[in-house]
Amino acid sequence: MALQEQILPLGGIAPDRTGKYRTDHLLVAEMIPAGSRVLDVGCGDGDLLQLLESRGIDGRGIELSREGVNRCVAKGLAVVQGDADTDLVNYPDDAFDYVILSQTLQATRQPKVVLENLLRIGHRAIVSFPNFGYWKMRLQLLIGGHMPRTENLPATWYDTANIHFCTIKDFIELCDAIHVRMERAVALDLYGRPLRLRLPWWVWNLFGEQGVFLLSRK
Amino acid sequence: MTHLQSVSSPSIHSEDRAHEADHPTSPVAKFGPEQPLMLDCGIDFAPFQIAYQTYGELNADRSNAILICHALTLDQHVANVHPLTGKAGWWEIMVGPGRPLDTDSYFIICSNVIGGCMGSTGPASTNPATGKAWGLDFPLITIPDMVRAQAMLLDRLGIEALLCVIGGSMGGMQVLQWTAAYPERVFSALPVACSTRHSAQNIAFHELGRQAVMADPDWHHGRYFECSTHPHRGLAVARMAGHITYLSDAALHRKFGRRMQDRDLPTFSFDADFQVESYLRYQGSSFVERFDANSYLYLTRAMDYFDIAADHNGVLAEAFRGIKTRFCVVSFTSDWLFPTSESRALVHALNASSARVSFAEIETDRGHDAFLLDVPEFFDIARAFLQSAGKARGLG
Fold first, then answer.
1. What's this model's pTM, rounded to 2 decimal places?
2. ipTM of the modeled complex
């Protein structure tokens, strides 16, 4: 399907009056109704989980780094040490209403398998990732002739954990290939603010620094 | 066995130990013939008694009670001076005002397990039918039996539900048994450095310890109290072997290396030339002073028999189906007795049961015993987990 034909509603986010939470986290939180059961895969220090719990959402987490897990548990969050690539298979079907994969897809060994598992475990999945089609990335490769580095992705190619970069366009094609429905899609700028205009996909793919997708099974 | 002579001269008299077994210095709950303990081996056991300690105050709605389950060779004296050894309580670092198990906020209970030797009925207690110690006439007990006795104690204390059950090693097994047997009585559970079943390797180590006790001529088929002896040497060897499994290669190396004990050159004898030998002998000799050899046989056996999945058609997740209890599972990287893989298997089963579970593996080179030591990361996790459980249960 031609990307330009798809028109999806933009995410509307309530303003964060406290300034405590990241904009992309607020965007994810807006997508989830209170009372839902949520698994956050790659939950880091648990900031998103804390936000979700403050909104009456029953949140659980998986985190690869031991330090991250221990900080989460010390915050009273229900987080287990685990690997998205190997441990999602241990979760039963339909165990959660939503499964979140925030800024982690590009660090998995098998993004396709992980995505399939997300939608097996959860009725819906929310996936966000850095867009390698972002104009600054393209420019660095085209003009600079080296692997791109940005404010949000400062690691060099030889010490980055990100092994499977993709563009928004690539991701949409993967969703099509594995029969995943996109219910909502939002592109965020460098500062995590949603691009407000209803624009064709190619514009998002160029100006979106990251993409956030609400997915369900077809 | 001349080289083990250093472990065979106890300073605590066996009469003191025997007296503590029947008349403990801590509070005791006595259960008469009308309230037998139904043992897994098929016996309705009565009369019996459970010795326990409490710390802190029970609140008005009885919602702040925490049960500590002790490990194999420990007892109810968590945070007070031990009546036999005169040493500080075994978990004073964890339990007290301002500590993770804060006695200003929680009511802490710990009871000596059934089969133990510090005041709860066990092989060292007097059999009312004979007027002599039970010895091997005492029935075989299991981890579920220990938990059943603890539940009867809580009934006696008027505590319906626990804010948390916490314990390491054999104590962790009891925690898991609590959640499997009485899920509605356990709001949260903190099993540490444990497993849902005892591994073949661990059973093997226990068998080594038991055989050491039984090979000691002073054991007299468990009737040593009639001969006024105690199998000190056998029990000390059992303790030495056990103690090695509680540590790690890295911890032993850091602590002792190949350093010599009070000498510069080897003596070319079987004397304790190395510091590590001297340390092990000390561990053995101090243990036999306070612990009953038969009790050691019974409690190690109880651990060997433990296998939660076996009681649920071999499917571990079945044991926790629909459970509402909040779990926090903790393991230590250098624990090879109850390795992280065992905790991970438990976590997978809890996930499959949709339980609310946290799991933290803590990096330390101190081996299985890390749960008893000063490991700040573990304290932070325990403190935060209890606070969040307390909040969810409506404690201030």
1. 0.89
2. 0.78
